[in-house]
UniProtKB/TrEMBL annotation:
Residues 554-581 have a biased composition (Basic residues). The keyword Flavoprotein does not apply. It comes from Mus caroli. This is Leucine-rich repeat protein SHOC-2. PANTHER family: LEUCINE-RICH REPEAT-CONTAINING PROTEIN, PTHR48051. Residues 552-581 are annotated as: Disordered. Component of the SHOC2-MRAS-PP1c (SMP) complex consisting of SHOC2, GTP-bound M-Ras/MRAS and the catalytic subunit of protein phosphatase 1 (either PPP1CA, PPP1CB or PPP1CC). SHOC2 and PP1c preferably bind M-Ras/MRAS, but they also bind K-Ras/KRAS, N-Ras/NRAS and H-Ras/HRAS; these interactions are GTP-dependent and both SHOC2 and PP1c are required to form a stable complex. Interacts with PP1c in the absence of Ras GTPases. Interacts with M-Ras/MRAS and RAF1. Interacts with ERBIN; disrupts the interaction with RAF1 and Ras, preventing the activation of the Ras signaling pathway. Residues 299-426 form the Disease resistance R13L4/SHOC-2-like LRR domain. Core component of the SHOC2-MRAS-PP1c (SMP) holophosphatase complex that regulates activation of the MAPK pathway. Acts as a scaffolding protein in the SMP complex. The SMP complex specifically dephosphorylates the inhibitory phosphorylation at 'Ser-259' of RAF1 kinase, 'Ser-365' of BRAF kinase and 'Ser-214' of ARAF kinase, stimulating their kinase activities. The SMP complex enhances the dephosphorylation activity and substrate specificity of PP1c. Coiled coil: none annotated. SUPFAM superfamilies: L domain-like. Pfam families: LRR_1, LRR_14, LRR_8.
């Protein structure tokens, strides 16, 4: 199961506020290069406060932009700018300057003259460390982002001089430590150090009492110092993918902690003192050596998201039912054989991942999960499709593909009871046919039937008018329903590794448009054939050859067509009335 809302990293990245939804002042044609012009440009005056020149292929900052002295926010990210011109010092009113993902190496000293600058983003540039001292002159700076800039160290001048920093972004570099001068950053609230080379936790961070977010994911940390307890305002603590074996008792003093990510470490248990962290809403414990759910975890009744993937669990504690505020629960890749009935008490649960366990059946009480929208059961030992699922009236996505475990041989007609279902993933099974009731599911948008034994599709599938994706590769299909092109919203249709005849493989390989054209032409041919047959029947009857069916029978027996009575008399030499002698 791959469910974007089910992954911790979607919640952990710092959201960079670019104000892209604000109304943008467009650039005047006669003043700016064509690369920055819009189709219907508005007049730009000296009172322009916002400008967006991102993604324009710029190799330098246009002088026309530098002439707009009232600019407060400038977006020049995702270009090919190799240097900052000296004229940058004219932007004395600029508060936000985004230059990330360019080709900058050196920073000119004039950059340090921007006396109003509050937010600077230089991420994704191959910066020379020696040129970074210019940043230390930006005394009003509150946000500094230097992600992916190849840094091996932080210039001490930055930490000494910038006393108003609230956000410091240093992720995806080669840092092993922070300068001791970091203690001067007393107003710092967020620091991002993900994907660096820290083997020791930077202890100087523990004196920055205003810290609210620390991200040290994907480093080489072996322990967390006891002084972490001094950070009483800490709200989000990310230390996933390190080498931690335990946590300090003092972490309980971080009473405002709401997000704790310990994913992919070597933690076997949690200190009992952590039960005092009553404001936790999101906890990541996936890929640790737990074997049992920590007892104290069941006291965190404020939890909304809990990740316990691949933790060697065989079941849940009885007290697990107390986590009544859970919205998301990931129990995938464990050793659970029986569906934990404690889960059925979690009435607010919206997403449940039980993929890659050993579950054989579902309890009737699963119907109590009336708010469940996403259910993952891929890779279990289900003997047949669990009809208990049909009571989940709010279900929108169902993952029941069997890449491992038992294979399902049929999909019940009662699938139509899931009227809110939008996505059905039933790949890697042994289905030979699909139920016609799929055509009665008005909200179905994605149907994944790859790697099954399907020989044909029901004609009723042409009524699922909202279907966007139909994945059918690696089956036994040789034809498609003749009205499949009526699915006007269908954008993705995969038919690889099927013995297709109608349409033929060469048509299928050309994509949807070729398939739709073939189906339409095929329908026209059938209509014409029907009309010709009707016309021919009329001719046969009018000429006295009998009904069309009798004609077919005589042809099968090899006889000549029957003649009318008048014709028979004429054959005996007795001309019928009206015939010439």
């Amino acid at each position: 199961m791959a469910c974007p809302s089910a992954k911790m990293q979607m919640h952990r990245f710092e959201m960079i506020d670019t104000f892209k939804t604000l109304t943008k002042e467009l650039l005047r044609q006669e003043h700016l290069p064509k690369v920055l012009q819009k189709k219907e440009p508005h007049r730009v005056t000296d009172r322009t406060f916002f400008i967006d020149g991102s993604n324009q292929g710029l190799k330098t900052i246009p002088s026309e932009i530098l002439a707009l002295k009232e600019l407060e926010e400038v977006h020049l990210e995702n270009n090919q700018i190799a240097e900052i011109p000296q004229g940058i010092q004219q932007l004395q009113n600029t508060k936000v300057l985004y230059l990330h993902n360019n080709s900058l190496q050196d920073l000119c000293r004039e950059l340090g003259a921007l006396s109003s600058l509050e937010s600077l983003d230089l991420s994704g540039n191959p910066l020379v460390i020696s040129s970074l001292h210019v940043i230390s002159h930006l005394r009003t700076l509150r946000e500094l982002r230097l992600y992916r800039t190849g840094l091996t160290e932080i210039p001490t001048s930055i930490c000494k001089s910038l006393h108003h920093l609230e956000l410091f972004g240093l992720s995806e570099n080669f840092l092993e430590s922070l300068p001791k001068e970091i203690v001067n950053q007393t107003k710092l609230r967020e620091i991002y150090l993900k994907q660096n080379h820290f083997e020791v936790f930077p202890c100087d961070l523990c004196v920055l009492y205003n810290l609210e977010v620390i991200d040290l994911d994907e480093n080489k940390l072996k322990s967390i110092p006891g002084d972490i307890g001094h950070l009483v305002r800490l709200q989000k603590f990310y230390v996933a993918s390190n080498h931690l074996m335990s946590l300090p008792e003092s972490l309980c003093q971080c009473s405002k902690l709401s997000v704790l990510d310990l994913t992919h470490n070597s933690i076997h248990s949690l200190p009992s003192s952590l039960e005092h962290l009553t404001e936790l809403t999101e906890v990541g414990l996936s890929e640790n050596r737990l074997e049992k759910v920590p007892r104290l975890l069941c006291s965190w009744v404020s939890l909304h998201l809990l990740y316990l993937r691949n933790t060697s669990l065989h079941g849940l504690r009885r007290s697990f039912k107390h986590l009544v505020n859970l919205r998301f629960l990931d129990l995938s890749q464990n050793h659970i054989e029986h569906f934990p009935v404690q889960i059925c008490a979690l009435r607010n649960l919206e997403i449940l991942a039980l993929d890659d366990n050993k579950v054989r059946q579902l309890p009737p009480t699963i119907s109590l999960l009336s708010n469940l929208k996403i259910l993952g059961l891929t890779g279990n030992d289900l003997l047949s499709f669990p009809e208990e699922i049909f009571s989940l009236i709010s279900l929108e996505k169902l993952y029941i593909g069997q890449d491992q475990g038992s294979k399902l041989s049929s999909l019940p007609e009662n699938i139509k009871k899931l009227m809110n279902l939008k996505e059905l993933y039933i790949e890697n099974n042994r289905l030979e046919q699909l139920p016609a009731s799929l055509g009665l599911m008005p909200n179905l948008e994605v149907l994944d039937c790859r790697h099954n034994l399907l020989k044909q599709l029901p004609d009723a599938i042409c009524h699922t008018r909202n279907l966007r994706e139909l994945l059918l590769e690696d089956n036994l299909l040789c034809c498609l329903p003749e009205n499949l092109d009526h699915l006007v919203n269908l954008k993705v249709l995969t038919l690889m590794n099927n013995p297709m005849i109608d349409p033929p493989i060469y048509v299928c390989n050309q994509g949807n448009e070729a398939i739709w054209k073939y189906l339409k032409e095929n329908r026209i041919r059938k209509v014409m054939t029907t009309k010709i047959q009707a016309w021919w029947r009329g001719i046969m009857v009018r000429k006295g050859y009998g009904s069309y069916e009798e004609l077919l029978k005589s042809r099968k027996k090899g006889k000549s067509p029957p003649k009318d009575k008048k014709g028979k008399k004429a054959a005996k030499g007795k001309p019928a009335k009206g015939n010439k002698k």
